[in-house]
Amino acid sequence: MFSLNRVTVASPKLVRCISSTPALSAKADKILDAKKKAKKLTKLRRQHQQSPENHPLYMDVPKALRYLRAASVGQPSSTATISILMTLVPQRGSKPISGSIFFPNPLKSTKILVLTAKEETQAAALEAGATDVGGPELLEQIKDGKITLDHDQAFATPDMVSHLGKYARLLGSKGLMPMAKKGTVADDVVTLVKNNLGSLPFKQRENHVAVPVARCDFSDKEVLENLKAASEAIYGSQPPGTHKPNLLGQTVLNSTAGPGIVIDFRP
């Protein structure tokens, strides 16, 4: 016969075991999740190590261009863009890649912003091909919306560094914040302007690099020349001797209204 007045007290050891169960469960879930991610990453790495010719959607570039141009019929060829999308498979500890591509056949004129308070440097930068040049007053005009911040590159002289902090969010949101460690703050901004005209910056976002490489009104020769320049820049963006480089995997060529076609993008 059971007594309603009897109260059973669990042992301290049992209490500790019960109270720790959620923590153990969370730890087990975390380990399981890590194993699933590692397995998925291994599968992805194996998939992207295969030769592009083995992919069912593979075509050589000239044939791919015929399909992409056919899909762009009815659109202004001068505005229909041909782009690449490369998949990157990171290793643990690998760093995102970034850099600039110098196209032999630029898609558009490069817009360069130069920030300097030195009048002589301003004049030289404009002569070298910079689009907008100025000091603190130029930053205020950008802040007030009088100048559209749609530039491809931005450079500054050291005398402007103390002024940039106030506009860091504005410039940074467009990827145009000059920084010494990125080589975009220098005394000789004129040389930077000359060396970057016709270039297009690229940056890894998550597991991809997406870059426009041509327009549909480019000839096959011009597209191939630009693809070669893009391939050399992207494959060369990992510093020599990188201990854990990203795996540069499958590359898809597509157009504004066209399908994605796997190509051989290796240098």
Automatic annotation (TrEMBL):
Pfam families on file: Ribosomal_L1 (PF00687)
Gene Ontology cellular component annotations, sorted alphabetically: ribosome
Entries under Gene3D superfamilies matching the protein: 3.30.190.20, 3.40.50.790
Record keywords, A-Z: Ribonucleoprotein, Ribosomal protein
The keyword Ribosomal protein is assigned to this record: yes
InterPro entries from the UniProt entry: Ribosomal_uL1 (IPR002143), Ribosomal_uL1-like (IPR023674), Ribosomal_uL1/biogenesis (IPR028364), Ribosomal_uL1_3-a/b-sand (IPR016095)
Family the entry assigns: Belongs to the universal ribosomal protein uL1 family.
Name of protein: 54S ribosomal protein L1, mitochondrial
Source organism: [Candida] anglica
